[in-house]
Amino acid sequence: MASRLWIVLFFAGTFPGAAFAQTEMDAIMMNKTQFCNGFMYGYSSWENYWEGTFKRDNENLGRVSTQSLMYMANYGITDNLNIMAGAPYIWTKASAGTMAGMKGVQDISVFIKWKAITKTFGKNRVSAFAIGGLSTPLSDYVIDFLPMSVGLGSTNLIARGMLDYQRGRFTITGSAAYVRRSNIELDRDSYYDTELRLTNEVRMPDAAHYQLRTGYRGKYLIAEAILTNWTTLGGFDITKNNMPFPSNRMNATMAGANIKYTLKKLPQLSLIAGGNYTVAGRNMGQAIAFNAGAFYAFYFGKSKQSN
Amino acid sequence: MKKIFIKIPVVILGIVAFVYSCSKDINERTDNAPALNPAKTDINAGTWKTILLADPTEFPVGAPSATTTPDYIAQLNEIRSFQQDLSQDEKRAVKYWSAGAVLRWNEIMRELVAKHNLPPYQNADGTYPVPNANNPLAYPQFPFANPPYAARAYAYVSAAQYDALVAAWHYKKLYNRSAPYNVDATINVMIPRSDLPSYPSEDAVIAGVTTELMKLLFPGDQDFIQLKAEEHKRARIIAGANVRSDLEAGEALGKAVAQKFVARARTDRAGTAGGSAAIWSQMEQDCIARGEAPWKSMDSPARPPMLPLFGKVRTFLFDSLTMVTQIRPVAPPSTSSQKFIDETKEVLYYSQNPTRERIRIVHAWADGVATSTPPGHWNSIAADDFIKQNFSEVRWARNMALLNMSLMDAAVVCWDAKFTYFNPRPSQVDPNIKTLTGLPNFPSYISGHSTFSGAAATILGHIIPARANDYNEMANEASLSRLYGAIHYRSDCEIGLACGKKIGGFAINRAKTDGAE
């Protein structure tokens, strides 16, 4: 299932994080002609945020929460080549102050995950992956109303490299991605970032994304601890008591955990749950996030036993 | 099957390469504004009606040296030496400043307003610090360039630029010293040629008058402002447009005229517009005594109202008696009336039923924190149109002065009404009303956006009649944006717009009699 990472990354909060199996950030592949799809619900909220590097709260926002419902699908073109896609509907809300919440369909993301190399050394197995993806807004949602906006509006191109090590049921997976972000357009015809810009177009800095995950990978149960970092390569800090802006230097490091359980009596069905907490950040809410979902998998055409 | 493993990464790499080749560079609207090439030199502008100057000779400008003197010839050679081996940055500066001095300094002002348009962060005890003009770089930086502050700043700078240029035009015609490229045909010229006498330099007048006023208005940004002024003057020499003595005379004139406006600004009552806790409380008590629900700050912690005595500031286009008797709007619908209840329900409707198009309108006109404010937005609209009109610098200044005096007077009229009536915001009356833009921290009636926009659209429609309908439509949209954003009642918007149009009418009366038409 495609991750919500690229599409739900913004100040408001549903910072990705919990990365669910299977995402473009894990080492799990669908088999050839296997199709998996389902829904994931997410709830994330924060009260404190980093205004630049200054950590504060804001009584005019209270607790800012984001809910999302995302449809995700993953298909095995071959055992080593998967294509996955997803799109969420998002609601935002502030518990205090007068700012109205926003809602809407956000970005669609499509990834191609290629398991390029697998090498086995005795009990050890190492795999290398190359992943490419694209995300782009599915609706004309409001960008320029952070932290209530449902997204940042850029079309993103993502290139990721990933290494997975497995010894028995123990696994460790690391990946790094470069995110090329397109410029975006606001509803207003000028804005101030570090100077006055007489245009509605905003130059979005690119970003890097890193993830390290480790844990148990069994046939029915997968349980992992996940450390994720998003670093914006450029951008500017929110100035004192200013509002956040899409091209801010948004950085965050999140620590979380994720469990996937496949039902023994109905192996087509798997349940997923996870959570994460933002342990460090910049121009970002210190969010705590929870997610849960259910996915159903089956084969198109001639069926093949799952390995 | 193996082939696909080769193809896929190739395709991905291809997409990546393609996207990388797309430039992220941004073209701003006036980056490539053409060099100013006035249709008319307005050679008689020295006779136009000034605003504060008693007459154009109030600050004398000495006669220039003749173009045959060694002194002048040395100055021509200075141009030639500047023009050797121009760097890219020097060429950029020439191109930038050739678009017009009034335009570029107006943009610089808007930038400074946007930079400083941020409400102070609260103290630990829940009170709010106040910016201090004598210590502008300490937090909170001075100024907090909110809409009234900005309106006044734009007005003073524009009015002073205009008066200074009227004086400059007087001396241009009097001394009639030609531009260097007309004196010596071998001088390379990088801007459109003009028959306008170049002494004193209009560019230096504008740089001088503006930097001098900026010391008062943006005292913490002097490094930035002085660098701009140096680049501006240098660009004029590099362009072959002025010799040094044109610039020196112009700058001195500009600085002298500025003092007249600085003196007015120091006594126009803006300095005390913040009021005091006793005054804020009295306004609330007076409102209760009238039987009305008083405005309360919806900020948390509660923030003192924005410049509650700005309605007492000296206006430019009419006196305070005229304001109170002819322009001040009638009282808003009583907070206990059915009309008020109905209008509040209408706001709730817009709060709960936003459409994408209405949100676009709200945000296109929001002009909230960290923007150049609604007056700055109308300056931008005007500037974009004036670029196409081929105005002379003095006519640019005159039109900007008319616009910005209207906008400042609109701020005064609007703030007078807001704090005379002290009417609550819709979100205060009905907590279910959530807003689609920031809720301003001052009373509701009348809408500032509506007052500003009515005034601006009216005077701009007089200046460029072919655009009058467009300006009116913009003003209507700006006005309604505040209802759509759920921060104003319909009465605030409609009465505000009408008040603004009245103010614009005073500007038109001035325009008709200032000698420029």
Strand content of chain B: under 5%
What is the ordering of alpha helices and beta strands of chain B? Answer: HHHHHHHHHHHHHHHHHHH
The count of DSSP E runs of length 2 or more, i.e. the number of strands of chain B, is: 0
State the helix count of chain A. Answer: 0
Low-confidence stretches of chain B: none
Label the structural class of chain B.
mainly alpha
Q: State the end-to-end distance of chain A.
A: 18 Å
- Per DSSP E runs of 2 or more residues, the count of β-strands of chain A stands at 19
Mean pLDDT of chain B: 96
Which key phrases capture this entry?
heterodimer; A: 307 residues; mainly beta; 12-stranded antiparallel β-barrel; two-stranded antiparallel sheet; 19 strands; disordered N terminus; B: 517 residues; mainly alpha; 19 helices; globular
Please specify the SSE layout and strand pairing.
The complex is a heterodimer of chains A (about 300) and B (about 525).
Chain A: E1 34-46, E2 49-51, E3 54-56, E4 64-78, E5 81-94, E6 103-105, E7 107-121, E8 124-137, E9 156-167, E10 170-181, E11 184-185, E12 191-192, E13 196-197, E14 201-202, E15 206-217, E16 221-233, E17 251-262, E18 269-282, E19 288-299
Antiparallel strand pairs in A: 1-4, 1-19, 2-3, 4-5, 5-6, 5-7, 7-8, 8-9, 9-10, 10-15, 11-14, 12-13, 15-16, 16-17, 17-18, 18-19
Chain B: H1 2-21, H2 70-83, H3 88-98, H4 101-116, H5 147-175, H6 180-183, H7 202-217, H8 222-238, H9 244-266, H10 277-289, H11 320-327, H12 338-352, H13 356-364, H14 373-386, H15 393-421, H16 426-429, H17 448-463, H18 468-484, H19 490-513
Helix pairs in contact in B: 3-8, 4-5, 4-14, 5-7, 5-9, 5-14, 5-15, 7-8, 7-9, 13-18, 14-15, 14-17, 15-17, 15-19, 17-18, 17-19, 18-19
